[in-house]
Amino acid sequence: MVKKRSSIILIIIGLIIFSSVVVSAQDTSWVVEINGKKYSYDDFVMKFNIFIELTAPRDQWDKLKKDKKMMKDYLEVYINEIILWDRVKRDKYDTQNTRLLNFTRQQVIINLYIMKVVYEGLKEPTDDEIATFYDNNKDKFKGVKLETAATQIREYLKQQKLQAEIKRRIEKIKENITIQRNPDYFEKGQKTSWVIKIGDVIITYDEFTGLLEDYKQKIRDSGQGAILDQQPVLFLQDFTNNYINNYLMYNYEIKKTDFEKKFSAQIDYLYQRQVMELYVQEKLKGQIKPVSQEQIRQYYETYKSKFANMSPEQAYQYISQMLNMQLYQTMVNNLVQQYRDEYLIKKNYTMSFLQE
Q1: pTM of this prediction?
Q2: What residue ranges in the chain does DSSP mark as E strands?
Q3: Could you report the per-residue pLDDT of 161-195, keeping only the tens digit for each?
Q4: Coil vs helix vs strand at 243
């Protein structure tokens, strides 16, 4: 009888141990643990999807978001960003230069709103519109059939519609708002009490020029300071126009919706990425040099077949963005590698994409 009871106890203990192993093996609620803190799979997927939308052509989004190898590769980016954000917080960089950071956050919200609301609300270009564009621009599609170029043309036409829609919305807001630019500042270069008036809101000299100088420094730190010296008047004009348009779009349209509440997680992540980029630029000041036109040309000539559905101009633009992002990511990775020894990193290898 004692022997039988012992067997039952052993079976129960065995079942408990087995159950614990099964539960552990199926714990997919977290993807990585860093210095004792677990980061959820939901957070990882949300940021992975945004990463795809930032780095890949729109027509490839659905495919890449299901790509397990892409997820596995992105996990390293995800870990690096967690570590880098921790360094930002340690150095209290996110509490410095609040003028530029507030402007950056507003820009993040506007860009996401345009992508998630304005763009998604546009009608798709028709087959006739695509065919007409192709026929009118055959010199740009030499050797490329309409069927091959259709996807790229569709996106190009939709981007044109997007720009037209943004302009329409801003112009509609301006119909009921008085906007003044102080000629003593813009035409005579004088120090004035105010620079811009938007309705009843007054943008002071210190407020505007302070942000302008912060923005210029950001450009210099990114290695693109030459444009400030080559076309200073045009730069000021573009900066001012963007400042006004952003102010109108944010305060007179976006703030009247629940967009910021609905997309708060995405906004926070995109804002963090922008702050980290500024942090890295400051850390790597003078080391970041944009990809040259010759490098872009060489890449295009080497991998020309990959861009059969694009015109050369479109391919060059895409390659430039891709190579510059790769360069930036490499420099970020190199910087983060200096810090990784301070962090205990544990990946959750029960995740299916890590078992590939």
Answers
A1: 0.80
A2: 30-34, 37-40, 179-181, 194-198, 201-204, 345-347
A3: 999 999 999 999 999 999 999 999 999 999 999 99
A4: helix
